[in-house]
């Protein structure tokens, strides 16, 4: 790898914690159908698409629905979720994120977002972080879910940087696999036992600095 020229960030769990809002929205949906949805159940939905998440939810409740009903339920869940994220503000940015983005800007390192979320633009605007990103690749621009590297490869392409000169920041195992499949270096945000395949694992962006980033060149 040459010098790090670009950093690509996943959104949920790296820049902001929107997972809690997804969970509340899914739980409300389950409760409305007459069954409970626990935090443990919610672990099964991590990094999974909306429709697959709904299938898991329905299987937990032992409920059968037609494709048409499923689409209506998925839409309802998204509307609930959106009502929560529209109330978000910059105070919900995870610790150290803005400082690290500032540092990258100062160093001339390009920044892109690579997220499966179709609401990524809305969230970045609510957090007042949009100006930091030169490219935003979200769920509206990709057809393949992680661990397929499509979202990160499109991000690198949009920035005009070779994959080998990119570092991806991810909190999910599927995301780490996607970064590696795309030929990129990866920093795992979270726990070593889950993200051990990443080149470096840190607790959060507040633990990142240029020295750690540069160490990925080796």
TrEMBL record:
It holds the Pfam family Hydrolase. Its EC number is 5.4.2.6. Mg(2+) binds at residues 10, 12, 170-171. The keyword Cell inner membrane does not apply. The keyword Lyase does not apply. The active site is at 10 (proton donor/acceptor), 12 (proton donor/acceptor). Keywords: Carbohydrate metabolism, Isomerase, Magnesium, Metal-binding, Phosphoprotein. Substrate binds at residues 10-12, 26, 45-50, 53, 77, 115-119, 146. GO terms for molecular function: beta-phosphoglucomutase activity; magnesium ion binding. Binds 2 magnesium ions per subunit. CDD domains: HAD_BPGM (cd02598). It comes from the Bacteria. It catalyses: beta-D-glucose 1-phosphate = beta-D-glucose 6-phosphate. Its cofactor is Mg(2+). The record marks 115, 146 as: Important for catalytic activity and assists the phosphoryl transfer reaction to Asp8 by balancing charge and orienting the reacting groups. GO terms for biological process: carbohydrate metabolic process. Belongs to the HAD-like hydrolase superfamily. CbbY/CbbZ/Gph/YieH family. This is Beta-phosphoglucomutase. It comes from Saccharicrinis fermentans DSM 9555 = JCM 21142.
